[in-house]
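User: My instructor asked us to take a sequence, write out its structure as tokens, and then describe one feature of it. I'm not sure where to start. Here is the sequence I was given:
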Amino acid sequence: MLLATIVRVVRDRDLAEEVLHECFTYIWTSAQSFNPARGSGTGWLVTLARSRAIDCVRSTASQRKRDTVQGIREINVTSRSVADEVETRIESARAATALRLLPPEQGRMIALVYYEGLTHQQVADRTGVPLGTVKTRVRDGLKKLRDEMERVR
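Assistant: Let's start with the prediction itself. The structure tokens for your sequence are:
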């Protein structure tokens, strides 16, 4: 009787069985909440089953709506990230080309700082060039890169 009541509401037998299981668990743990003065035991069970089934339908519909909204967001994010990725690759190729146009000592310093992630001090230690010279070469090289990148645009 309870399963039939739940199936009429949720319209899915597997889901109805899950709801019925939840109902039985609630009945087992909360039987003391039944008040015979408020109605029959059968009425209490049917009302409980119907209420849980309605909650399940609402929860399922709400979850589907959230999933749909999330899916739409992911589609929009993905399409924007693809465009961003293409733009980043184009800019990266332009920067690499401009980097090759720099004097070798400036290009090497910039490559060590930006591509290998070294600090100016680490570049100085690795190359044996004084720290001030490293900073000057990086600064001058970046200025030339910026000018070249703006020229190409």
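For the description part of your assignment, you could build on this observation: The mean pLDDT is 89. Try explaining in your own words what that tells you about the chain.
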